Structures are given as C-alpha cells and as structure tokens.
Amino acid sequence: MYRDLVEKLAQKNDSRILLAVIDGLGDISIEELGGRTPLEAAKTPEMDRLAIGGALGLHIPIARGITPGSGPAHLGLFGYDPVRYQVGRGVLAALGVGFKLQHGDLAARINFCTLDDSGVVTDRRAGRISTEKCVELVEMLTDVQIDGVETFVIPVKQHRACVVFRGNGLIDDIEDTDPGLVGHKPVPVTGSGKSYRVVREFQEKAGEILADLDPANFLLLRGFSLHKEFPSIEERYGLRAAAVALYPMYRGVAGLVGMDIIKCSPEDITGQNRAAKKALSGGHNFIFLHHKPADSAGEDGNVQAKIRAIEEFDRALPAFIDLGFDVICITGDHSTPCPMKLHSWHPVPVLIHGGPQRSGYSSEFSERQACTGALGSFLSTDILPLLLAAAGKLAKFGA
C-alpha cells in the first residue's frame, strides 16, 4: 500500500539524482584498526564534507537479521520490495552481458572453482582467474548437450559465467550447489522433474570436461531463476534512469528494472564518470553508479584493500559532484565485514546530500555517526522515496 502511494505521488521535474553504491560498504569493528571499521579508518574528505552538509542514517537491506544477496539488495535500493520481486543471480548475470533471455528461461550463475583430490572446495573462485581464461573454459563447455533443452553457457567476468536452459516445463526449484565456504564439498543438485534432471546432467558433463584442469577444475551453480518481466522504474517512479556499472550482474539488475545501460570506456571509475556525463546530457535524471572493489576486499578479508577501495571512490567523487546533481546518495547494497569474508545482515550506512535535509548532525561518513544520524534507521526500500522527496519529485498527499 505504501509503495503504491509513492508511485501515485511521483512527479517529474528537472532535478537530477545520483545513487552511488559502494558494494559491501558496511563492516564491523576490527581489532587491527583499533576497533574502527574500514570506512572509519579510510581518509574520505569528500564524503565527510557531504556528510556535514547532508544527513546520515542506516538502511536495512531486507529485514533485521536477514543476510541479502547482491540482487535483492540492489532491488531494495531501486525501490522494489526484494521479497516480492525475487530474481536469481543467473538471470542478472545473463542480462548483464546482454544475453537476450526469453520468458521461461532458467538461468544460473556459474562460479568456476577449485576442488582437491577428495572433492572438497579449496577455492570458490579458482584464484579469481582472468576473464580470458573464463572465455576459454566456456568454449570448452559449449559442446554440452542435454535432451529436451537448449543450453547456453556465457562468460561473464573473471571466475564468473552463467548458464541458460531453454525449453518447456522448466521450474526454478533448484538449490545452489555452492556450499558458500571452502572446506566443504559442492552441494548435490536437488529439485524435481525436468529441471532437476537437466541441471544434474549439465553439472556432471561439465565436471568431466573440467576435471583435469588447474586451477578451475569444477563449477558451482548459484541463483537459479526463471526469467520474468518487471515493471520499469520509469513506469513506477517517473525516473529516466541510467546505470554506469562495470560488473555484468549489476548491469543486469539495473536492466531488469528498465534502466539504460551506459557503456563505460575505459572500464574504470574515470570511464564511469564519462558515461554518467553522457547519460545526463542525453536527458537521464537518475544515475546508478556501482563501485565493486570494497566488496571484493571484504570477501577476501583484506582490510587494507577495503580501505583503499573506499579511498579510491572518495578521490573520484568530486568529478561526479561537478556533473551537477541536485541530490546525491552514497551507500552500500549490504555489509561485507572483513572478519566474516561474507555478506552480512548488519545495517548499511547511508549519506544523502541535497534538497532540504536536517544537516549539522554529523561531521564524517562512518558507521558510528550513521547510527546517530538525522535519517535514523529504515528499510532500503525507503531510500528511493527519500531521494524523490529531496529532489522535489513527490507531490503532497491529501488536502
């Protein structure tokens, strides 16, 4: 009901919004940093300056205590209830590399991985192999044929690929085969009917092809999902939105909600700035900027790399501010604490600058100050309404 109200009140104007997502931004106290988080330890003068003139808070990606995947976490930031609008990583990965999914396609994300002689996963990412190596492995899997379906294997980036099964009668009741941690064997394929048979046969045949290779000698399957259409962010909120993201999965989730995907050249934060400038000049009024390295560092447990990733974003921030946004939001999709090396349920710091804000509550962008910030604590789905309101894009409710 509340979300329907926001859609009814959404109105168009010339205000321009930047939603900058530092992937995996949130963290917990780390002993080697004297109890600080990487965000608190990082030198971030630009974000701190915005915090002084803006407002801070914490968002809860799904619900208290629930650890989110990247797909649902981003959908929440885009104003889509992640429980209602569920989608797997496979669909997002396929869309992100431009694969033309059809209604009813079953897609899954592939992680090339390393198994030891006893079949235990020793590296879930096969040493983060190069994208060139990924392409080579995918070419080896193109010969896999399964009765009753068309099978497409598509390279994504580094150790990531995706597989799409096309045929009648497929369902997405297949659980991930990724155990989520090293030191465990891949999870056996579970499910029922045709989908179970197809996925099990694909994994067996692919495993035979990869078995003697090094370091990628097996694959893990994650995020099974059937493709279905979503209402666009323009239909719901009147935003002409564009995504400047380097990783295919995040382009995929942006494309799923109808954002235009702007090519970034070079494929770094400088190229993202150029792409954002191009999108604004083309009439877009909402830019989604995605910065990945902080999440990768968190998953590796590399505290100093996470600090460097946050500082890299801060150094690049002035170039985005200069593009003339009326409202800027900086946050993460979820927390990826370095001590855990995984996504977590911890609330994520949020900074909103621009529009009428209760400013003066904060002097820096950090978890501690976000806990006492003017915005308080709220669900991630509330971020977009807050940005629309700050940009004057929500009409008054009632007389």
Please specify the SSE layout and strand pairing.
Layout lengths: L1 H8 L7 E6 L15 H4 L3 H9 L1 E6 L9 H8 L11 H8 L9 E10 L5 E3 L7 H11 L8 E8 L2 E7 L26 H18 L7 E9 L6 H5 L3 E4 L3 H9 L3 E2 L7 H13 L4 E6 L1 H8 L2 H19 L5 E5 L16 E6 L13 H5 L4 E4 L3 H8 L9
Parallel strand pairs: 1-10, 1-11, 2-13, 8-9, 8-10
Antiparallel strand pairs: 2-12, 3-4, 3-6, 3-7, 5-6, 11-12
Helix pairs in contact: 4-9, 5-9, 10-12, 11-12
Task: Walk me through the structure.
The structure is a single chain. The protein has 14 helices and 13 strands. It is of the alpha/beta class and 399 residues long. It has two domains: 2-85 and 231-390, Alkaline Phosphatase, subunit A, CATH 3.40.720.10; 92-226, 2-Layer Sandwich (Alpha-Beta Plaits), CATH 3.30.70. The model has no long low-confidence stretch (mean pLDDT 95). A hairpin with a 2-residue loop joins β5 and β6. It has helices at residues 2-9, 38-41, 45-53, 70-77, 89-96, 131-141, 193-210, 233-237, 248-256, 269-281, 293-300, 303-321, 367-371, 383-390, and strands at residues 17-22, 55-60, 106-115, 121-123, 150-157, 160-166, 218-226, 241-244, 260-261, 286-291, 327-331, 348-353, 376-379. The protein has an eight-stranded mixed β-sheet, with helices on both faces. α4 (70-77) packs across α9 (248-256). Helices cover 33% and strands 19% of the residues.
